[in-house]
Design goal:
Layout lengths: L2 H10 E6 L5 E8 L6 E6 L11 H7 L57
Antiparallel strand pairs: 1-2, 2-3
Amino acid sequence: MSVLLRLTSALSGRKIGTDRFGNAYYESKADYRGYGRKRRWVLFAGAAEATKVPPEWHGWLHHTSPAPLPEEKRHAWMLDHQPNQTGTANAYRPAGHDYAGGRRAVTAGDYEAWTPGT
């Protein structure tokens, strides 16, 4: 994050809070012109990646809720958040994908390809 962005955030906005990942959330002090409500933004801890915003803060950022939701108790079965894996070796690849072996389950045998004029 640039020093200028952190400085302007401190001057033109007020800090609302931080999440468990270290992201800081801000709201403008005055209503945004032509917008009719306060502007909200996040300063990411580390690389700016939109998928790093937890659901408790997502609703607040998009004006769905007036305040951030309380962070729920973490249960053993709850997985930690992972950023978008597209383009990495951990990306989801369905059966039949070339990188997943290129083989898919055999169809039931009742499939006939459509041909024009039949």
